[in-house]
Amino acid sequence: MSIKNLKEFKKELNTASKTTTALSKWHDLRLRLFVEGIIVGIFSGSIIVFYRYLLEKAENLRTNIYDLLSSGNLWLICGWFFILILIGLFLGFLIKDPMIRSSGIPQVKGILISQLKMNWLKVLVGKFIGSILAIGAGLSLGTQGPSIQLGAAAGQGISRIMGRQLIEEKYLITSGASAGLAAAFNAPLAGVIFALEEMHKNFSPMVLTSSMAASLTADFLSQQFFGSKPIFSFENIQVFPLNYYHLLIILGLIIGVLGCLFKTVLVLSMDFYKKVPVPENWKPVFPLMVGGLLGFIIPEVLGGGQNLINQLHEEFFTLKSLVFLLIVKFAFTMLSYGSGAPGGIFLPLLVIGALAGNAFSAVALEFSNLEIYADNFIVLAMAAFFTAIVKAPITGSILITEMTGSFSHLLAMITVSMTAYLVTDIFKSGPAYEILLERMLKNEKKNDFIGEGVDKSIIEIPVSLGSALDGKSIKEIKWMPGCLLVAIKRGEKEIIPNGSTKIYSGDYLVILTDEDKEVLARSKLQQLASEKINELK
């Protein structure tokens, strides 16, 4: 045998070995994921608990610093601004790594579709320190995006330490992301639904199993440390009367438009920073300087804003003050996020939604006797604004329900959220995290992912109701080259298919493909599984 033929034979043997390994591990994988999800939940939950604790201390320290600076001592004020400049320069150094920049959720989504790669330990340390400094110093950024990425990095770390295959690693990354959200918000169900609805865009039983184990474990650890009370102090919210539901439609329309504006301005803010002729590591300095000034004028807009939401429930704000807070918080969030500083939009967008809801209630009270429902508008607007921006209505409804501890507003929440969702659809405004991911991939010039074609991935594709595949046998379907249908999951059963096996709506197609073809394969197969019969004619 010639050397050339020998090399080709070894290459084929190596590829076959990887394929066999991938398939054999697929069947064992389901039995391990639950246990591994618990391990990931312990690791991720512990990290997020420590993260929340340090961030709480940092924000308390910032409050004490501004109390001290209120004395007007010029030297102390100059010293504080000098510290802010140093923090900004350090953040600028950290964000040279695009995986540490901004939210972290787009990066996790990019990893799951094999478009991005992550050094888990570097991201874990860099994001942890960077986001604490950025938010603690006053930038209008949230902890939940970083928490999700920290959890995902922890999941990848567990995978690498345990020597898991790529197929299994992606489930552990997803589990870690779910655990991160659960521990950050004391919202285990929202963590699971976020993984299904936003991260994977389908309700995979595999994802459900591992994410549920990780989220519940992380939430258990979080509640052991921070207590079991909801994040927001809304109690005894009244059931919103049906005869006033027309107000919810109006609120949903307003929030939907505001959500479209938020996403548009967010992209413009990043464009602004991109065009500013200053070194990259100086860009976080600008919003920190602005934040330093705001700390003397309107300190409520600094940081994520969790305390501000609780204030809206406990104190009375005039309509003018609410509108002023809304405008300043909106603008400062844009300045903070556009700089690329480590931190997310998750919590700031909830604050903006709460302010908008409270302002709407102030107007509504002028025309009707709805004082006892003022908190309802705050809660409902938060869910609607989340839905308008992330376009994940189920996650938004469950998240706000868990964060407020009230289950009496689900019908009203779905009404206002779906109204906002439809508005964003009319304006063709896409999900924020997908917009940010596409932008990131474009900047990194990774629109066309090119790999070595040796590692294998297994993807799950749900067959939609009314799909053209419904009722067809496998041999009747024109499959994409490089994809192998290895199993069909039908309820609790797993079918090993042959040419005459028929596919039905509700099935999950388990498909083996090369890692470097995963993005294209997923896109083509999802289109194939969701196309309606009349669309093919």
Estimated share of beta-strand residues: under 5%
How many β strands by DSSP? Answer: 4
Order of helices and strands: HHHHHHHHHHHHHHHHHEEEEHH
Assembly classification: single chain
Q: Which regions contain 5 or more consecutive residues with pLDDT less than 50?
A: 1-7, 9-13, 447-454, 533-537
Q: What's the main sheet like?
A: 4 strands, antiparallel
- The overall number of domains is 3
CATH topology of the largest domain: Clc chloride channel
Radius of gyration: 24 Å
CATH top level of the largest domain?
Mainly Alpha
- Overall 3D shape: globular
Can you walk through the features of this model?
With 537 residues, the protein is mainly alpha-helical. The chain has three domains: 13-226, Clc chloride channel; 242-441, Clc chloride channel (Orthogonal Bundle), CATH 1.10.3080.10; 455-536, Regulator of K+ conductance, C-terminal domain (Alpha-Beta Plaits). Helix content is 66%, strand content 5%. The protein contains 19 helices and four strands. Strands 1-4-2-3 form a four-stranded antiparallel sheet, with helices on both faces. Helix 2 (74-94) packs antiparallel against helix 4 and helix 9 (245-275) crosses helix 16. It is globular and about 80 Å long.
In brief, what are we looking at here?
With 537 residues, the chain is mainly alpha-helical.
Keywords:
single chain; 537 residues; mainly alpha; Clc chloride channel; Alpha-Beta Plaits; 3 domains; four-stranded antiparallel sheet; 66% helix; 5% strand; disordered N terminus; disordered C terminus
